[in-house]
Write a structure and sequence with these properties.
Blueprint lengths: L1 H15 L5 E4 L5 H11 L3 E4 L3 H8 L10 H9 L3 E4 L10 E4 L14 H13 L4 E5 L7 H11 L9 E5 L18 E5 L2 H12 L5 E4 L2 H32 L3 H8 L23 H10 L6 H11 L1 H15 L8 E5 L14 H11 L3 E5 L5 E4 L2 E4 L5 H6 L2 E4 L8 H7 L2 E4 L13 E4 L1
Parallel strand pairs: 1-2, 1-4, 2-3, 4-5, 5-6, 7-8, 9-10, 9-13, 13-14, 14-15
Antiparallel strand pairs: 6-7, 11-12
Helix pairs in contact: 1-7, 5-6, 8-10, 8-11, 12-13
Bound molecules: nicotinamide-adenine-dinucleotide.
Length: 441
């Protein structure tokens, strides 16, 4: 009992003095911004990642994550406050370890927790008394308690007594100019009340507000509610877009008018489908878990079904728009504008634009793409390099399809020179007298 109290006290004191050595496991979209914030708070931080190139870049002060600017990263690296390594032995120095590794789906849409398991194995090999371990990767309720805790306790060390274990979901919204790691409130759930308390103290040093929940399972579920909420609402509004098409209405007008209600309505917008590492994937973690409890998560499955069919719907609408011009889709020149999964970022993971391009190619359209953030993409026909959006290229295409509404695109130019524009994002709403025929989703 005495030893346990002393252990917690010394870790807490080290945290409060910002002397606790933090190892961030995984330096991607979530891990690198976190590592930077922690280092800025004053903690000595090591980033451990299995990707040698990413580690070398960080150690050279170069960030490949849009939200982390080199000007911010470099001074921290030069001052020795943040270093990166591919050596898992770095974990031996850790007072606190935050796990920020990917949680994708397998081909059969089941959770692939292998990255978490690998990270936990590395931590287990160096687990020592007085250490705090926090999982930040999005996952199904029960992961921390059912997978991680038993693995770490195989060392003979006991959670809440010898070491501390918690779950705290990262809520980063890449490209968001207002909310980032530091000013987005954190939810924390611990395996024991003491684990929760220590984890709360840890995050409070760096993050503006910490919200404690009763367990790691609750914290895991909070994140899945947040992302399922988005997926279901986007699914609803995508279905409203399909309905408006049949009814001959403009879905964008309907949403804008509904959004004038100051209470009880929150606007979501339709589009070519869902992308990124979160919204298309995370709800399936929840429905998978529920299936194991003989429960079918109807909203999740329905929203997933509608959202994942949007690329096909977009291609059908493009074909319809070309048909109106007496042009077949086969052989038509299509300029796809934007391939990142959302505005003003470079992330193409799960991007529906890639599906739209693939489906257009399957229908024998000749496709080129432009994107200020993405120089090259992989397609079924091999790698494709971006092209520039010029008046000549716009005039030479049969249809320009706006798939991502990057602020940097010149929509005036696009609507002046392309003969036909299919706009899946309402990006052309301010173009009052377009020369092109503009068709909206
Ligand atoms: N990207 C987002 O917007 C976002 C937002 C909130 C939460 N999340 C969640 O955060 C987690 C991480 O997502 P991300 O977007 O940062 O992923 P990412 O792919 O950008 O980065 C993950 C990093 O982990 C490294 N890695 C993989 N296995 C490792 C291991 N065993 N040991 C050390 N490093 C390892 C990879 O090399 C990579 O650099 C996921 O669970 C995701 O769902 C992501």
């Amino acid at each position: 009992m005495k030893a346990k109290k002393a252990r917690a006290a010394s870790l807490e004191e080290r945290i409060l003095r910002h002397e606790a050595h933090v190892v961030v496991v995984g330096l991607g979209y979530v891990g690198l911004p976190l590592a930077v914030e922690l280092a800025q708070t004053g903690f000595p931080v090591t980033g451990y990642d299995i990707a040698a190139k990413r580690v070398a870049n960080v150690n050279a002060g170069k960030s490949d994550i849009l939200d982390v600017k080199d000007e911010v990263l470099r001074p921290l690296v030069e001052a020795g406050k943040l270093t990166a390594t591919t050596d898992p032995k770095a974990l031996a120095q850790a007072d606190c370890a935050s796990i920020c590794v990917p949680t994708p789906l397998s081909k059969t849409k089941d959770p692939d927790v292998s990255f978490i398991l690998d990270a936990v194995k590395a931590i287990k090999n160096t687990l020592h008394p007085g250490m705090l371990v926090v999982l930040e990767s999005t996952t199904y309720p029960g992961t921390t308690e059912e997978l991680i805790r038993p693995m770490l306790e195989e060392t003979g060390l006991k959670v809440g007594k010898d070491f501390y274990l918690a779950f705290s979901p990262e809520r980063v919204d890449p490209g968001n100019p207002i909310y980032h790691t530091q000013n987005t409130p954190r939810v924390v759930g611990g395996t024991t009340p003491e684990c929760a308390r220590i984890a709360k103290v840890f995050y409070e040093q760096t993050i503006a507000k910490v919200y404690l929940v009763s367990s790691t399972q609750a914290a895991e579920m909070v994140k899945l509610l947040e992302n399922t909420f988005r997926s279901v609402n986007i699914g609803l509004v995508n279905e409203v877009a399909l309905m408006c098409d049949r009814l001959g209405m403009d879905v964008w007008e309907i949403i804008d008018a509904a959004a004038s209600k100051p209470f009880g309505f929150m606007p979501f917008y339709p589009g070519p489908g869902l992308g990124g590492h979160c919204i298309p994937i995370d709800p399936h973690y929840l429905s998978w878990k529920l299936k194991s409890l003989n429960y079918y998560a109807r909203f999740i499955e329905l929203a997933g079904d509608i959202n994942s069919h949007m690329p096909e719907y977009v291609v059908d609408r493009v074909a319809r728009a070309l048909n109106h011009e007496k042009k077949p889709i086969a052989g038509s020149n299509i300029l796809a504008l934007g391939v990142a999964y959302k505005r003003d970022i470079s992330d193409v993971r799960e991007s529906p634009a890639l599906d739209v391009i693939r489906l257009l190619q399957q229908r024998e359209a000749v496709v080129e793409y432009a994107d200020p953030y993405v120089p090259e993409i992989k397609t079924d026909n091999g790698p494709m390099k971006r092209v520039k959006v010029t008046p000549e290229r716009l005039q030479g295409c049969d249809c320009a399809v706006i798939l991502t509404d990057h602020v940097g695109f010149d929509y005036e130019l696009i609507c002046r020179h392309a003969p036909l524009v299919f706009d899946t994002r309402n990006a052309t709403r301010n173009i009052t007298s377009p020369k092109a025929r503009v068709v909206k989703l």
